[in-house]
Amino acid sequence: MRANHPAIVVRGLRKTYVVPERESGVGAALKSLFHRTTREVTAVKAIDFDIAPGEIVGFLGPNGAGKTTTLKMLAGLLYPTAGEASVLGFTPWERDRAFLRQMALIMGQRNQLAWDIPVLDSFQLNRAIYQIAEGDFRTRLDELVEMLELGELIKKPVRNLSLGERMKCEIAGSLLHQPRVLYLDEPTIGLDVAMQRKIRAFIADYNARTGASIMLTSHYMADVEALCERVIVIHHGTLLYDGDLPGLIDRFSPLKTVIVELEEGSSVPAGLLSRLEAAGGEIVAHSEHSLTVRAPKTATPQVTGLILGAVPIADLTVEDPSIEEVIEHVFASSGAMAGEAQGEPMAPLADENAPLPDAESVAALAGSATGSRNTEVR
Amino acid sequence: MASARAGAFSPGNLAAFYRQRFKVDLALQVAYRGATFIWLFSLIVQPLVSLVVWRTVADSQGGSAGGFTAGQYAAYFLAVMVVNQMTFMWHMWEIEWRVRTGVYSGILLRPMHPIHEDLVANLSFKAFTLVPLIPICVLLAVIFDAQFDTRPVDIVAFVPAVALALGLRYTIEWALGLIAFWVTRAAAIHQLWASVTFFLAGQMAPLSLFPKPIQVIATVLPFRWMLSFPVEVLLGRLSGRGILAGLGMQVLWLAIAIVVMRAVWSRAANHYSAVGG
């Protein structure tokens, strides 16, 4: 494989589960003996993307979006219903041993180390299973122990470890064979902030040292912000966005927030508020000495100009919404759009609790949900 | 797909894995020796009950019944005790648990056939429990006045006979365990298999006591070769020719079982990955 060749290539990948459908109760159970009703659930609908060697990609989506299903297909655990994938030149679900030896899937909610035996014994077993040379094993183990601060932990049985300790050991155990492709499914779930930060730093370092390609799912946006230049957003099995993080904010959250603090002694002049509103701004808060206005990006210069011209100010800031807000917004509104695309009853778009989607963002979302993606979606 | 999984592991690498896993498992057996000895106890009790019953039957019929004297019955069931300990497996039940709880996902992603890990776990249990079992059997042999007609050649032949019986029983039951990939509650099927084995492999009584048709079934099918045959060898009840023919049957059935097991495993793994791990 050439160095500039993508490490992961995904084309038209689709997964449909057939699930048995049965109502509760004895009668329904008896009926299902003779006539089984099943229902098809499409978890992933024909997605495409490439991942370059050495890239860390955040894979985002709400629960049930199809993230784990996709990762499982790319790790070789699941057989797709349609489509193709190539990871390091292998078709993952053929589970070629040469492929398995270069890949690791770490699931934050699932244990892979043996429960009853000391961690180091599990590591030794992995050495035999992955045929790691003794010298390599020693060096890598020492590195992992140092970087993850495992110390005495590796002498204890897994069942005696705390959740965070166990996760660190899981990660170390999965990296002893130095995989070139690494899938991390919620690696920091349930961990405290300090531990999350440590694991994050470690993943970044592993990537820098080994040049491994990494796909990461996480509900903690801090993980994604710290590690991933690129994010892929999936919802209802469909790719919504593939690009860098600032682009995601740009595209899905066209609102900015302008916050001004007035100079002492001055106050908001009469008429300013209504002029701001006329310019497209929404007054989020105002007091005697400060004013917060949310406005579409295009109206921000005008809003700022109006304020600057009307009143002497001590401080002015213009903020992008946090990535959390953007993501929440994407999922809240695109859920409705995807539902519409499937012909299901459409949920009310303007959820009162969600940041209001204006015409522009709705258009953007509708475009991506129905397939007429803009150039950012490959 | 099967071809991709074949090979790749050199015997040296596999041996290294077996050594490592064996050490770890042995340490576990020691750590959980309480549980291990309870299992051992249950392995002793059942043949011991049969031994007492059949000895009593033989005694009541003037010292012999069905071609076995009271002392030979004692020897038979002590041999069954040892051979059963060496050949039985429990992984049918474990496979079902793994499928149900999703533990198989991790196992499937390892670049190694999962039967190896189970086999080592089984062997380490055997190694650990055989140590107390042998003196217990010697003691019971003395107490019940067991009569062994074992010749030196039988002891030599017993080694491959019991090894092949272990391989055969293990491979078949491991393949049967894979039913759990399709059926959520496979334990019922496993229980049925265990009951049939109990009769047809000679665990309940020597096969020579059964009606002829049943003996034929047990001989043509793999049952006799999984347990009864090494017992017969150890007791010195077979001619040299009979021993050779028996070893031949064991090799034949083992070859068939391995082919079937591999085919079932590859389908089970694909089925698992089709429905979702």
Structure description:
Chain A has 378 residues and is α/β, with parallel strands linked by helices. Chain A folds into 2 domains: 8-247, P-loop containing nucleotide triphosphate hydrolases (Rossmann fold), CATH 3.40.50; 254-319, Alpha-Beta Plaits (2-Layer Sandwich), CATH 3.30.70. In chain A, 37% of the residues lie in helices and 25% in strands. Chain A is built from 13 helices and 13 strands. Chain A has helices at residues 26-34, 67-75, 97-100, 119-129, 134-147, 163-175, 193-210, 221-227, 245-252, 272-278, 300-310, 323-341, 359-369; strands spanning 8-21, 37-51, 56-60, 82-87, 103-107, 181-185, 213-217, 230-235, 238-244, 255-262, 282-286, 290-296, 313-319. In chain A, helix 4 (119-129) packs parallel to helix 6, helix 9 packs across helix 12 (323-341) and helix 12 (323-341) crosses helix 13. Chain A is globular. Chain A starts with 7 loop residues before the first strand and ends in a 9-residue tail after the last helix. The relative contact order of chain A is 0.11. With 277 residues, chain B is mainly alpha-helical. Chain B has one domain (2-275). Helix content of chain B is 77%, strand content 1%. Chain B contains 13 helices and 2 strands. A two-stranded antiparallel sheet of chain B has the order 1-2. In chain B, strand 1 and strand 2 form a beta hairpin. In chain B, helix 2 packs across helix 3 (33-60), helix 4 runs antiparallel to helix 7 (115-143) and helix 5 (91-101) runs parallel beside helix 8. Chain B is globular. Chain B starts with a helix and ends with a helix. The A-B interface holds A 17-18, 69, 72, 75-79, 93-98, 100-101, 103, 105, 107, 110-112, 114, 116-117, 121, 124-125, 127-131 and B 1, 4-5, 8-9, 13, 16-17, 20-21, 24, 27-28, 31-32, 102, 105-106, 108-112, 269-270, 273-277.
